[in-house]
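Suppose you are handed a protein chain with no further information: no name, no annotation, nothing but its sequence. What can you learn? This example shows the usual starting point.
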Amino acid sequence: MAENYQWYPGHMTKARRNMQEDMKLVDLVIELIDARIPYSSRNPDIDSLAANKSRIVLLNKADLADERVNKQWLSHFKEKGIHALALDSRNKSAAKRIDPVVKAACAEKIERNRRRGILNRPMRAMVAGIPNVGKSTFINSFSGRSVSKTGNKPGVTKGKQWVKLSNTLELLDTPGILWPKFEDEKVGRNLACIGSINDNILQMYELSLYLADFLLTAYPGVLEERYPLPENPETGLSLSDEGASSVIERIALSRHCLTKGSQPDIEKAAAILLDDFRSGRIGKISMERP
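A reasonable first move is to predict its three-dimensional structure. Written in structure tokens, the prediction is:
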């Protein structure tokens, strides 16, 4: 199963080189991660690449994650000296919460500029993150309809364009994208669960077993609520007392997913479970805690 969860190193090498070059041009790195899997959806390279820059971590899709766990992650990043915010980037009103965080994260730089007589210069930022964490959605929501490229800046590499997001923030128009780098198979599985890995290359049934097992342990009762079923008449066991494979079979029965031989269609049931999880229909779920 592990072989399904691999990225192409060539892409990552090029992305890392581009980001390293662009990092010289910015004051601030805004890193987007998925609030449901903050550890798995980060790329450790960003810590080293952005070592001397102001940092903001945005826990995107926070509306799909467990609110109590979101707070734990916010505290975790605060302890590491990183400004963090939980938000749903599709919600345009959430963008208003970014400006004060930018000012806080860049306070030293703003003060240095003030002492040099440079007032009201927007901070220059890069949005970084692995694929499919919502960078484009965030940029579009934050900028609203006022996206305007402000052109080349003095002393900036020719051809680099800046997008004005607000009076206090300009964005380098090539957001940093790094492929996740993982030795731990669990990281790959977590990314697959939220849909960051193409479903066409996955064993959906195997992945649904992993997710069902997690939900039975970490969020007992949510599966019964979503897929109400009586006790198994053969064993007398409830859904939560049975293993993950029985869960998938009984989801198939509850959704009337049967093969031509009237057997539970476990592939279809697996897809239903994953789709319900990704869309938040099972509930607000966090797969990782700090």
